[in-house]
Amino acid sequence: MDGLKIEIFTLGDFSTNAYVVINPQTKNCLLIDAPEGIEEVGNFLKKSGYNLLFVVLTHGHIDHIMGLAKLDFPFYIHHEDKEFLANPELNLSSFLSSPFCLKKTPNLIKDNDNLLLDTYQFHLLHTPGHTPGSICVLVDNFLFSGDTLFFDSIGRVDFPYASYDLILASIKNKILPLGCKIKVFPGHGPSTTLERELKNNPFLKECRYT
Length: 210
Fold this sequence. Notes:
Layout: E1 5-11, E2 16-23, E3 28-32, H1 39-48, E4 51-56, H2 62-65, E5 75-78, H3 88-91, E6 107-109, E7 114-117, E8 120-126, E9 135-139, E10 142-146, E11 149-150, E12 153-154, H4 164-175, E13 183-186, E14 192-193, H5 194-200
Parallel strand pairs: 3-4, 4-5, 5-6, 10-13
Antiparallel strand pairs: 1-2, 2-3, 7-8, 8-9, 9-10, 11-12, 13-14
């Protein structure tokens, strides 16, 4: 990744992947998603001497935002998922013993925005379907796909405001055109490539012939 380094942390009861993307030359980094158990990331940063600049949320569900309560850094979320942060029904924490309601103010993003880590540009793709404001984060040939695309699967669409048609359209129109060599880092499970998913992912079957 032209010098960038990725550290992967699988955290919390939902086994959510959090990604620390580091510029080793400056020791600056960003965090993609903030699940429960984020203290493990904090300990890593402290021991390594890395400087966390900001957090990017791929969407507003509880398993990706719960750690924000223990972080004091700027964070970004797509404007269509803003209301999820403080609404337990939307962020799916209403069934927990302690529903989650975040009062912190986010920085709002939209489709095709870019965020900078030093000279590295992180391109934000709006990929609705799992939630209205789901995003993927692209840097070079690496895509952080949140809960839009997984190894052999796609994000669940049986939640409020989720849509099977939208998530397939997002994958077909926004993700697959990036090219087969893109490596995918999903919100849950192992990393993969677009080439592999196009060949093997049963949900992408129709995309192979269009």
